Amino acid sequence: MADDEAQGGHISTEARINERIRSPEVRLVGPKGEQIGIVSVNDALKLAQEADLDLVEVAPTARPPVCKLMDYGKFKYESAVKARESRKNQTQTIVKEIKLRPKIDPHDYGTKKGHVERFLKAGDKVKVTIMFRGREQSRPELGFRLLQRLAGDVEELGFVESQPKQDGRNMIMVIGPHRKKSETKAHTASQGQNRSVPSPRAAAAAAQEPAAQAPAANEPAADGAAVPGPA
């Protein structure tokens, strides 16, 4: 821990800089990570001014605190850019929900299964809920078998992430996609890029090809072909 602090790798959220640093002595780290050693805060500030840099307290809990010479404004800007890129690259996990009845009609089951397949292809998780009503609550095995059937029907697209469990009058199962949403988007984009698009020159040549194959009106007939005589 002390070595990491001495390298000045982590900066607290409310870092003190320059004259705001209260400690009379600091362990100083140079702009390239080199160890300068323990110096008075006044000497550290002089070095920062000479190098046209800021003195930033990077490890305030160390004794003495660790400070680093750096361009603090540039550091904050680069950190904000990295944070934005990180948030942009994060994929939000969305859980869709499908509700079924234990004695669902075959046509309705096909429709619901289609929804589950579409959600899984998009990289989303699916929460499948079996709703029991009245006497159906005494037959939980009906819901369990239905969930097992659904999991088997979509096993090529997803896997059972959370096994069926009773939740009051409902039975719940969660199916997760084999492919993450980010991978799905990348795969879709690559398919679009790999589609062959003819160039304008090739398209023009293809358009002229039938005309080139058609014989001209005044072109002499081929050998052996019948030539109509005068009327």
Task: Provide a compact summary of the structure.
This protein has 231 residues and is of the alpha/beta class. 40% of the residues lie in helices and 23% in strands.
Task: Tell me what the structure shows.
The radius of gyration is 36 Å and the shape is elongated. The chain is α/β, with parallel strands linked by helices. The chain has helices spanning 2-7, 41-50, 72-89, 106-121, 140-153, 181-194, 200-213; strands at 25-29, 35-40, 54-59, 66-70, 95-100, 125-131, 158-167, 170-177. The chain is 40% helix and 23% strand. The strands form two sheets. It has a four-stranded mixed β-sheet with strand order 2-1-4-3. The protein has a four-stranded mixed β-sheet with strand order 5-6-8-7, covered by helices on one side. The chain folds into two domains: 2-86, Translation initiation factor 3 (IF-3), N-terminal domain (Ubiquitin-like (UB roll)); 95-181, Translation initiation factor 3 (IF-3), C-terminal domain (Translation Initiation Factor IF3), CATH 3.30.110.10.
